[in-house]
């Protein structure tokens, strides 16, 4: 499989099928990140589409000296922050969402759903700047430096935001 840099060059030269490969590679990760940040499946899907559209439209602004995944996550993080700011200004809508049931026992599904709801409610209660850093570090497994690059903040700020929630 081609690496990200080669695919980006192909996309920049007009090969749209190369961008399809990029989307296929990152769509699950970007969706999962957005879902953990927003807490709504449909909204996360819509936002993921927006992120990939923005990335495609701005692919010529990508600088190859940076990691492509960091650049893509920066777009996702910025888009997510913009959406969260809009939501703060708009009236709240019902955040309950039904989840499709897998072939597991009803008890397991119920416990897992409750656990996820509790975790999600705690994550959503955090300020978006702390939540973003937590998601990028613990769910996406980015290094402190990569998180700093994605969010365009110093590594020391990343470290502080990762450790400060322990004190809250």
From TrEMBL:
<dbReference type="Pfam" id="PF04542">
    <property type="entry name" value="Sigma70_r2"/>
</dbReference>
<feature type="domain" description="RNA polymerase sigma factor 70 region 4 type 2">
    <location>
        <begin position="119"/>
        <end position="163"/>
    </location>
</feature>
<keyword id="KW-0804">Transcription</keyword>
<dbReference type="InterPro" id="IPR013249">
    <property type="entry name" value="RNA_pol_sigma70_r4_t2"/>
</dbReference>
<dbReference type="InterPro" id="IPR013325">
    <property type="entry name" value="RNA_pol_sigma_r2"/>
</dbReference>
<dbReference type="Pfam" id="PF08281">
    <property type="entry name" value="Sigma70_r4_2"/>
</dbReference>
<dbReference type="InterPro" id="IPR039425">
    <property type="entry name" value="RNA_pol_sigma-70-like"/>
</dbReference>
<dbReference type="InterPro" id="IPR036388">
    <property type="entry name" value="WH-like_DNA-bd_sf"/>
</dbReference>
<keyword id="KW-0805">Transcription regulation</keyword>
<keyword id="KW-0731">Sigma factor</keyword>
<feature type="domain" description="RNA polymerase sigma-70 region 2">
    <location>
        <begin position="23"/>
        <end position="89"/>
    </location>
</feature>
<dbReference type="InterPro" id="IPR014284">
    <property type="entry name" value="RNA_pol_sigma-70_dom"/>
</dbReference>
<dbReference type="InterPro" id="IPR007627">
    <property type="entry name" value="RNA_pol_sigma70_r2"/>
</dbReference>
<protein>
    <submittedName>
        <fullName>Sigma-70 family RNA polymerase sigma factor</fullName>
    </submittedName>
</protein>
<comment type="similarity">
    <text>Belongs to the sigma-70 factor family. ECF subfamily.</text>
</comment>
<dbReference type="InterPro" id="IPR013324">
    <property type="entry name" value="RNA_pol_sigma_r3/r4-like"/>
</dbReference>
């Amino acid at each position: 499989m081609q690496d990200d840099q080669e695919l980006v060059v192909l996309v920049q030269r007009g090969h749209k099928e190369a961008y399809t490969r990029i989307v296929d590679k990152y769509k699950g990760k970007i969706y999962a990140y957005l879902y953990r940040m927003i807490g709504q499946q449909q909204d996360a899907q819509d936002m993921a589409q927006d992120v990939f559209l923005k990335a495609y439209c701005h692919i010529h602004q990508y600088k190859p000296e940076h990691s492509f995944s960091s650049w893509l996550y920066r777009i996702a993080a910025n888009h997510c922050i913009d959406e969260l700011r809009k939501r703060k200004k708009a009236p709240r809508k019902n955040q309950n969402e039904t989840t499709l049931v897998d072939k597991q026992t009803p008890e397991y599904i119920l416990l897992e759903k409750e656990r996820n709801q509790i975790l999600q409610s705690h994550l959503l209660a955090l300020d978006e700047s702390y939540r973003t850093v937590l998601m990028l570090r613990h769910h996406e497994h980015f290094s402190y430096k990569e998180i700093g690059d994605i969010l365009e903040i110093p590594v020391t700020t990343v470290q502080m935001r990762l450790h400060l929630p322990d004190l809250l």
